[in-house]
Write a structure and sequence with these properties.
This protein has helices at residues 16-25, 38-48, 64-73, 91-99, 112-174, 178-210, 223-233, 258-274, 331-341; strands spanning 8-12, 31-35, 52-56, 82-86, 104-107, 219-221, 243-247, 254-256, 282-289, 292-299, 346-350, 356-363. The protein is an alpha/beta fold. The strands form 3 sheets. Strands 2-1-3-4-5 form a 5-stranded parallel sheet, with helices on both faces. A hairpin with a 2-residue loop joins strand 9 (282-289) and strand 10 (292-299). Helix 5 (112-174) packs antiparallel against helix 6 (178-210), helix 7 (223-233) crosses helix 8 and helix 8 runs antiparallel to helix 9 (331-341). The radius of gyration is 30 Å and the shape is elongated.
Amino acid sequence: MKVAPIKKILIADDEPAGIALLKGLLPREYKFMAATDGLTALDLARQHQPDLILLDVRMPEMDGHEVCRALKASEETADIPVIFLTSLTETEDIVNGFNLGAVDYVAKPFSAIELNARVATHLQLQATKEELGRMNAELHEQQNLFLEMIPHDLRTSLAIIQGNAELLQRMVKKREGDDERYGPAADDVLHGCERLKALLTDLLDVGRLKSGRFMLRKMRMPLSTLIAATLSSFRDILDETRYRIELADQLPELFIDHHCVERILVNLLANAEKYSSPGSTIFIRAWQRGEVVVVAVCDEEEDVANLDRAKLFVPYYRSFLTNTTEGVGLGLHMAKLLVEAQGGEIWADQDEEYRTRYCFTLAIR
C-alpha cells in the first residue's frame, strides 16, 4: 500500500506567538517550517519547496505582498500555493492579494475549523494539480512514442504499395493502349504515396522536435538554389507551372539546414496549392531584413484577414474556407516547428495587394 508523503507547510509571521498558535490549530501530521521575516521565508521556500505557505500580510521590512510577488516571479516557487493571514477586512486589500497570486486568505482571529478546512482544501487541490501534471507528461511521452513507432510501421506497408505501383506503371507503358486506360490510375497511386510519405515524415519529426531530439545540420546555400532543388525534388507533389519566383537582388547566402528549409517550403507551397484555385499563380518572394532573409509564399485567393490567425499554426486545424477535404492540418504546424528550430519566426499576413501571405525568416549567419 502506497503511503502518502507528509505535507510540508511554511508559516511566515513576524510574531513567534502567531506561529505557535497556527501550529497548535493545525494537525500534527503536517511538517512545519517557520520564518519571522520575508527574506527567510523566501530562502526556506526555495530550499525546501513546501506544499503550502501561510503568509502574514503585516511583516516589517518585507511585507507579505512583497514576499508573494517574489515567490510568483521565481520558477522555483511560482507553483506553491499561498494563503494570506490577515486581520484586514477591506475588500481592496483582499483583492490585491489574489491579484498577486494568492489562492486564499484567512482572517484573524483564526477559527480552527475554517483554517483547517482551507488548508486541507488547497493541499488537496495542489496534489491534484501535480498528479494531472504527471499524467500529462506521461501522455506526451506516450504520444511521442506513438508518433515515432506508427509512421515506421506504415512506411513499410507504403513501400510495398509504391513498389507495386511503379511496377504497374512500367508494365502499362510497354503495352499499347493500356497506357491511356491504366496509366493515370498508376500515376494517382504514386502521387498519393508521395503525399503519404511526406505526412509520415512530418509525424516522425513532430515528435523529435517537441522532445528536443531533432538534429540540425547547417550549411551555407543560396536561396535560389534551394528553391529550384525543392521544386525539382517534389515535382510529384507540387505543380511547378504555378510558381513565380521573385527574389531581391544580391541576397546573401543562408546558414541553414537545407533539408529543414526544403520541408518548410514544401508544406507552405502545398498549403497554397490546396487553398487556391487550380491554375492560379503562387508567388515565392524573398528579401533581406537586417540579419535575416524573409521568405514569403503568396497566393491569389481569400486574404488572411478572413482566417483565424491564432489557429493557423495549431496542429490539425484546417480552415473551413476550403473546398477540399485533403490533408489533416499538420503542414503549417510542422513548418512552424522547423522554422523555430532554426531560430526563425513564421507568421501570416497580407501583401500589398491584400493576398494571403505566409512569411518566415532564415538566418544569414
